[in-house]
Predict the structure.
Amino acid sequence: MRFLLAKLLPHQTNGTHPIRSSIGAGLAIGLSLVVGLWIAHRTGLSPALIAPIGASAVLVFAVPASPLAQPRAVLGGNLVSAIVGVLLSRTGLSPFAMDVMAVGLAIMMMHLLRCLHPPGGAVALSVAIGAQSGAWPWSFLLFPVGVNSLTLLVIGWLFNNMTGSRYPHRHEILHKNSTPIAYEYDRRDLEAALDKCVDRPDISIEDLDEIIRSILIRRK
C-alpha cells in the first residue's frame, strides 16, 4: 500500500507535492469533521470542528518537515492558545482588550513552551472573539481543540509516512560514505550564526547542519 501510494502521489523534483498534500489535508479535515460530529452528537458539545485546524493541516501536509508542523507544535500550540483564550474569556475584559491580547499572549506562551504553531494564534483569537457571547467552558480544550488536533496528527502520521514523507520529521543523513574535505566546520559556529539572525529561518538546526555537511564533503 505504501509503495502504491508513493507511486501514485510522488514528490516533485523541487521537493513540493501539491497533489499529495492537498489530498492528505482533505482527508484529515474530512475525518476530523466526522469524528467531531460523532462526539458532538454523543455529548451535545459544539462546535465539531474549529477553523484554525485547516491552517494546521496546511503545515502538516504541505511542509511536514517544518518545526512548526511537528506534533509537539500542533497539539501543544493549539492547546496552549486555547487555554489563553479561555482564560481571557473569564477575565471580564472588553471584547477589544481580549482580541488585542489573545494572539500576543498565545505567541509568548508558545515560545516559552517551545511549541510555536501559527494556527495557535487563530485559535486564541477565535476564542476571544467568541467570548462576546460568554465565557468558554474548560471542556473546549478537550473537545474540539484536543480531539481535532489529535485526529489531524494521526491522519498526518499515517498518510505522510505511506506516501513518502517522514512524519514526525527526522533529519536525513546526506553524507553517507563520504570523506570530509579540508575545511573546519563546527556546529557550534552554525548555532552562533543563527543566534545572530534577526529572523531565524524556519528549519531545524539538525537539518541545516546536515545540509552544510553534505556540501562540505566529497564522495568516495
